[in-house]
Amino acid sequence: MSLKNYMGTGFVILIFVVCLFYLFLKEKRKTYRIMFIYGPVFILAVFILPVTAKLMESLSEESIYWRLLWLLPVTVVISYCSVKLLMETKGKMRIAVGGALAVLFMVSGRFMYFNENVSLAENIYHVPESVRQICDAIEYPGREVMAVFPEELITFVRQYSGQVCMPYGREIFTTDYYIQNDLKQAMAAEVIDAGELCRLSWEKDVVYIILDSEKEIQGSMEENEYDIYGTYEGYDVYRRRNVDLENWYAVH
Amino acid sequence: MIVIRVLFLLLLLFAAPFLYGYMLLPAYNKKRGAYTVISCILVGRIALWAVFFICLLPCILKGVHFDTSVYIYAVTAAVLGVIMMIIKRMTEPKNKELKVVSDSREPFGKKAMWLWILVAVIFVIQIVLAFVFMSPDGDDAYFVGESVMTVSDNRMFMKDAYTGYSTHVFADIRHSLAPFSLWMSMIAFLTKIDASLISLTILPVYLIMLAYGVVFVTGGDIFKKSMTARGAFMLFAEILILFGDYSRYSMENFMLLRSRQGKAELAAIVIPFTFWMLLNISKQLEKEKKPGLKRFVILICASATACLCSSLGAFLYSLFMAAYGIIMAICYKKLKLLFYFGASCAPCVMVAVMYLIF
Q1: Residue A129 and residue A123 in contact, taking contact as beta carbons nearer than 8 Å
Q2: What pLDDT does A2 receive?
Q3: Residue B301: how many CB atoms within 10 A of its CB?
Q4: pLDDT value of position A176
Q5: Strand positions, DSSP E, B100-163
Q6: A109 chain-B contacts, CB cut-off 8 A
Q7: pLDDT, tens digit (0-9, with 9 covering 90-100), for A3-60
Q8: Do A112 and B253 touch (CB under 8 A)?
């Protein structure tokens, strides 16, 4: 499974293996045989050994056995092999082979910036604009503030501001086991129960509650002592009434 | 004010590594131009990262404040730099720096020029794309969060990066012993530029440039005599990297989309850099020359940097050195190489022992 994860579509690794064979037949210089053939083959052999997998899994809780394949000089070997192939051709044939190889590499992989996780940066900080505006609005000079955010914003908050704390973070969504967290459940509900959310938030000393403006709320946030503070990029920010941040101190 | 910050940033990212590398590189060859400058920057960067790791680790474990730790590092780096300069002046003859490489290289013709223009254009496009596009990753919540929090709180690993709640350095020893994110904090602290901007926008671009620099010097050593071959090598490498999204786990994916994470530096810079150094060493051995003390020092620095970048760095780096060490020892019939390469993994062994203890 680890090799499959690393290989992805598989074509680039196939090209790499073909290059190893080609160099094995054609490369005569000792240094390059050591660096481009023997080394990678040794590393692949170690990767395949069952004892290596057991050792790596004992070093970390996550399955990161595939990281051993980072030791393979894939880019260097393929590039070197390609140039070596070009050097054996001349004139227009060389240009044709070079062009064919370039196209082969392009179709074997995928353009990095077509990745589904890549998007146009919304600001120079490379965080969602909503996070930037909300954090700028709720930060208080000289102290931290506790705020609870919708799930889609959680990973970005503390990348932008070290002053904005949260009652739970990304860890709650990434562990293998389920973590019971009533506040998280209240935030994730289809219809927000204002009373329940405000009660659970205040138990965690949350001063600001951030909700998607489109989210349906049952009950009133104001009646539960959280007043609307502002709306930023499609998110409503509610602030706990009568909290004097200059003099209020909560232990975390 | 912003101009001074930018100048200081350039000093930290380019000038300081260049000076360090200039003193550490085995031979500074004036005639090799860009290759030599980039080699100096790379070697110096690795060395400075190693010094950073060695200075910060005891500070982290002792709970020293972040600003004090940075000053300790800055003074240590400066003192080491002066010592290296003195040693260099005393041990190397004056005119060795100006030694001209034998001009058996092919002349830089039209073909080479067009190739290199294409290489430069793709490189610039790459850098612009890295500025213009964002590629958020879940792990950034930890690494960038830790980096930003360290600057604002002035404490290291004493708070949970995800929430801001108090914790202890030994609560997450795995990340405490691989504090690459603190290097980003240090850059932000010294330049007074926003830590978020440094970690998410500026340094990823710099690190991508370093990664390409390693490819550049590797190609420069393989195809010493032909600029056309080097250009073709760089072009193929750029295409492979730019189209390297065949897997979420590939080195290329980490290099371009997650370059602010330490493990990306391990995959895209440290291990390829070590490959380049081993290539150099192998060439020396083939000519029946010794690898030399300077290369040994550089390898030790790379070993420490591997540990700085990732908790798995110690294991991966040691395995890499073991693989090539054994092969070279057999091929060149020099068993002493095993000790040479083994000794260069000393930082990895030290970190491995610390993992076991803590």
Answers
A1: yes
A2: 59
A3: 28
A4: 58
A5: 133-134
A6: 240, 243-246, 252
A7: 666 666 778 989 999 999 999 999 999 999 999 999 999 999 988 888 877 777 776 6
A8: yes
For residue B31, the model assigns a pLDDT of 61
Residue A236 to residue A150: CA distance in whole angstroms:
11
Low-confidence ranges of chain B (pLDDT < 50): 98-103
Which residue among A31, A75, A165 sits closest to B279, beta carbon to beta carbon? A31
Q: Tell me whether B267 touches chain A (CB under 8 Å).
A: yes
CA gap B51, B69 in Å, rounded: 12
What residue numbers bound the domain in which B170 lies?
2-101+109-357
B206, HSE (Cβ side, Cα atoms, 13 Å) = 21
Q: Which of B239, B244, B344, B335 is nearest to B302 (CA)?
A: B344
Share of chain A above pLDDT 70, in %: 89
* Residue spans of chain A under pLDDT 50: 252
List C-alpha distances in Å: A22 to A37, A77, A117, B163, B230: 10, 11, 36, 52, 20
Asked if B20 contacts B84 with a C-beta cutoff of 8 angstroms, the reply is: yes
The Cα angle at residue A146 between residues A141 and A152, in degrees rounded to 5: 115
Total domain count for chain B? 1
Contact yes or no for A112/B247 (Cβ under 8 A): no
Interface mutation vs chain B, best among A62, A70, A116, A164, most B CBs within 10 Å: A70
Chain B residues touching residue A113 (CB < 8 angstroms): 129, 133
Tokens 């709640």 locate to B165
Count other C-beta atoms under 10 Å from residue A108's C-beta: 20
Cβ pair B140:A6 closer than 8 A:
no
Is residue B347 within 8 A of residue B302, CB to CB? The reply is no
Give the number of residues written for chain B.
358
Q: Which of A33, A159, A164, A184 best tests the B interface by mutation, with the highest count of B CBs <10 A?
A: A159
pLDDT digit string (tens) for B80-128?
A: 999 999 988 888 766 555 444 444 566 677 888 889 999 999 999 999 9
> What is the predicted pLDDT for the residue at B98?
46
- Tell me the C-alpha distance between B17 and A230, whole Å: 47
What does the mean pLDDT of chain A come to?
A: 89
pTM of the predicted protein model: 0.93
Task: Give B346 to chain A, closest Cα distance, Å.
Answer: 19
Name the burial class of residue B79, with classes exposed (0-12), middle (13-18) and buried (19+) by CB atoms within 10 angstroms of its CB: exposed
